[in-house]
Write a structure and sequence with these properties.
This protein is of the alpha+beta class and 818 residues long. It is 39% helix and 22% strand. The N and C termini lie far apart (119 Å).
Length: 818
């Protein structure tokens, strides 16, 4: 017992000095952040997003843990936390500081600094476990924690949270190499520790869950394909050996599944419901290039004048990562590969090589602007593994590169100094261990390393935030919404401030944004118009916060609750929309091909003076059947707001038989309103089907035509376009003059004024066309027509007449020529 206590004291003494070294390095290499822990972050984009996530996790775990993923942003979407990283361990770490100091910035910054410290110490423990050499372990910890990739991502704490990875590898190694061939109680401890650290890594970052799985898989593959002295020493058969190791992995897999499955189910639900995934083309701008591995940040003290890029390239609001690992780290790693007697060095060399290739993305770039046609393994893995489609930035595989490089550098350091240490004094022995660490830190030192962006805390928190905190629960909406001005950098201050009142809001920003959040922001740009206000009511908003110098005029459904300087808070009454005044009709393009996808159109006509608005999660439920065929059930989204009219495409399958078919449709909007007996006929033919789309828009003459013109006269047409709802594409208009037989005489084809994609609902657009009638134009009656189309898609776009009936051609008027 005395010997054991002495051993523990020795370990504490050894690690105490190591922890002090890493504590000092954390403060110095993240300078000057340690001086601004309570009131500043790296920036107001990702840093504040992560501040919000960490604070929400802690808040939810102590107030309503079963609703952890139902965060307060993007109301009424569920599982909003799963739109980005969970950061569960980070939230648990920050929780006591957030509670004690009521300062979520302090909690976030302590998580950030602790991530560096943990990464350094975890790698120290792993390499010490491999080498039993403290100097090698300190060198490895310094490289792993403070490399340029980490120091270049101070706004993204999830990318700094890789400290559980070395502990995962350490316990995996111990678990697989233990001499026992039968499971014992002590073996389950090893299984649990490996599973625990793997799970902590997975829950710290979705990206790093994938990286951790890859590292573990590569180590296991290497373990099983190489000879083992363990099996030979204990005279175990090959089958007995491998079965025992596979059993161990199975036990760990059960532990891991139990620990992380509850937290990954919401991600699977979100992916299934919203189809969040990245195209492989999105990965290229966020891939490493060969040149990036030779570059440092301009602030780097040692190499900034030599190796910093002369032209900083920004992507996603941030400069590209600088990935130069340092001369000493690379040199020591080469020694580790070439001279170390550790058999396992080859597993880390394999990991380094594979991770390096994956960091380069789907194809090789020599520099960020110099692509080649060489396809890389990332492209193949993207096709093979669906999980890869949730990743956007292959450059993040550099975290694994640095993990493997740090281990190999530790092995190289051990090999370089092990003999010299035997002949030196204790002082010189310590110098041999610490001098390379100091030189590596100097290679990584940047002045400043962190940006200091002040944010409001404590007494600087706006008064309206404190007022909201004291009010009964209710949905809030702040205007202008986040990212409402694309000319300004993204500022998530309002989302960060919600950590002090936790009111639900339809607004928000995350790694993925729900598909209809942009529609809400689009409608709010026109506030205080009636459409926007109706949508605010549909979103269950109780408190409307408007940052405006003067209050808006109050009315029966919106009253001023409180004013705070340039900020005004209004209470909003529930909607008074008359649902019975919402009508529907069916439009069926014809002909259609048999047994193929077919698009019918439901036209909603709102006869109420108030706009009909819905939540973004509301769906139109359709039951459709052809004659006596089976019912086809489907759902489709609706426009968020219908002032006068909306057009909803419905995709179903046509019958297999040829001839005229009757389609019957029943439609319902989430229990709000339903229509039945919507029916029409479609001709089913074996020929090219009609390609039509209905635009929620009309056109009319702003000024009437003259009744009579002469050949050679100028004919001025003043058109008024009337969009009833948002048009989600650019369309062209053909304004033409035709004779009595319908033959085209003159035509102007161009995009309408203002361009259809940019038209705002209910805002008329004036458009002028001038024709010069031919001098040889025959006498007779002529008509003015308008036709819309999308030439590159081969689509005819139908417009609506005065009775909201779709037409391919709209007749505007007629005149005679004498």
């Amino acid at each position: 017992m005395i010997t054991q206590s002495a051993g523990q004291a020795s370990i504490l003494k050894r690690d105490g000095s190591t922890l002090a070294i890493f504590f000092v390095l954390t403060g110095v290499l993240t300078n000057p952040l340690v001086l601004h822990l309570t009131n500043a972050v790296e920036d107001k984009q990702d840093a504040l997003l992560n501040t919000w996530i960490i604070a929400w996790v802690g808040h939810a775990l102590i107030t309503d843990p079963l609703n952890l993923f139902n965060a307060n942003i993007f109301y009424p979407y569920r599982n909003a936390l799963a739109f980005s990283e969970t950061l569960l361990p980070q939230g648990l770490f920050a929780l006591p500081f957030n509670l004690a100091f009521d300062n979520t910035v302090l909690g976030y910054n302590l998580v950030l600094l602790a991530s560096f410290w943990l990464a350094a110490y975890a790698m120290y423990l792993f390499v010490y476990d491999l080498t039993r050499a403290r100097g090698a372990a300190i060198v490895a910890g310094t490289i792993f924690a403070f490399n340029p990739y980490n120091l270049g991502n101070l706004a993204q704490v999830q990318l700094l949270s890789f400290g559980w990875m070395p502990l995962t590898l350490m316990w995996l190694r111990r678990w697989l190499t233990t001499a026992n061939f039968r499971l014992s109680i002590s073996d389950f401890r090893l299984a649990f520790l490996f599973a625990l650290f793997f799970s902590l890594q997975a829950l710290s970052s979705f990206y790093y869950a994938f990286l951790a799985g890859l590292a573990v898989a590569l180590y296991v593959i290497w373990f099983f394909i190489t000879p083992h002295t363990l099996r030979l020493t204990y005279h175990a058969s090959r089958i007995t050996f491998y079965v025992s190791r596979l059993t161990r992995l199975a036990v760990s897999a059960i532990f891991i599944a139990a620990l992380i499955t509850p937290f990954f189910i919401p991600y699977l639900q979100v992916q299934r419901e919203m189809g969040f995934e990245r195209k492989v083309s999105e990965s290229e701008p966020f891939s490493a290039s060969l040149k990036l591995y030779t570059e440092v940040a301009p602030q780097n003290v040692l190499y900034g004048d030599w190796l910093a890029s002369k032209q900083v390239i920004y992507n996603g609001g941030y400069p590209l990562d600088n990935l130069f690992p340092g001369i000493i780290a690379v040199a020591l790693a080469i020694v580790g590969v070439a001279a170390s007697k550790q058999r396992e060095r080859w597993s880390y060399f394999l990991l380094l090589t594979f991770a390096f290739l994956l960091s380069l993305g789907p194809r090789l770039y020599l520099s960020p602007t110099t692509p080649t046609d060489i396809t890389l393994p990332y492209r193949w893995l993207y096709d093979l593994f669906p999980l890869m489609r949730a990743l956007r930035a292959p450059v993040r595989f550099d975290a694994l590169v640095m993990c493997a490089l740090a281990v190999l550098a530790g092995l190289g350091f051990q090999e370089s100094v092990s003999r010299k240490q035997k002949t030196k004094s204790r002082f010189l022995s310590a110098a041999y261990r610490l001098l390379p660490t100091a030189l590596i830190a100097l290679e990584y030192l940047a002045l400043p390393a962190a940006q200091i962006t002040p944010v409001p805390v404590w007494d600087a928190i706006p008064e309206y935030v404190r007022w909201l905190r004291a009010q009964p629960p209710g949905v809030i909406l702040e205007l202008p919404m986040l990212a409402s001005d694309p000319t300004k950098p993204l500022d998530l201050t309002t989302q960060y401030l919600s950590t002090y009142h936790w009111r639900a809001t339809p607004d928000g920003y995350s790694g993925f944004n729900p598909p209809r959040r942009g529609e809400i922001a689009y409608e709010m740009q026109a506030f205080p118009n009636e459409r926007a206000f109706s949508l605010i009511q549909a979103l269950d908003v109780k408190y409307l916060i408007i940052h405006h110098s003067a209050p808006l005029e109050a009315h029966g459904e919106m009253e001023i609750a409180k004013g705070f300087g340039d900020t005004w808070i209004y209470t909003v009454a529930p909607s008074s929309f008359e649902k019975q005044r919402l009508g529907a009709r069916l439009y069926l393009p014809s002909p259609a091909m048999p047994n193929s996808t077919y698009t019918a159109f439901l036209i909603l006509n709102n006869q109420s003076p108030r706009s009909f608005a819905i939540k973004p999660t509301t769906q139109l439920h359709i039951e459709a059947h052809w004659d006596n065929d089976a019912v086809q059930s489907t759902t489709t989204p609706l426009p968020l707001v219908t002032s006068y009219l909306s057009v909803i495409p419905i995709r179903i399958t046509t019958p297999a038989r040829i001839g005229e078919a009757t389609l019957n449709v029943r439609a319902a909007i989430n229990g709000i309103v339903a229509w039945s007996d919507l029916a029409g006929k479609v001709e089913i033919k074996n020929e090219e089907p009609t390609h039509e789309i209905i635009l929620p828009a009309s056109v009319r003459l702003a000024t009437p035509l003259q009744t009579q013109y002469a050949p050679g006269d100028a004919l001025d047409l003043n058109l008024t376009w009337i969009p009833f709802n948002k048009i989600d594409a650019y369309y062209s208009a053909s304004v033409r003059i035709v004779d009595a037989r319908g033959e085209k005489i003159l035509a102007h084809d161009r995009e309408p004024a203002g361009r259809t994609f940019l038209w705002r609902p209910n805002v008329t657009v004036n458009d002028a066309y001038t024709f010069t009638l031919p001098r040889d134009l025959a006498p007779g009656e002529y008509r003015v027509q308008v036709k819309m189309y999308q030439a590159d898609q081969g689509i005819d776009a139908l417009l609506l007449d005065e009775k909201f009936i779709p037409h391919e051609i709209i007749e505007l008027g007629k005149f005679t020529v004498k």
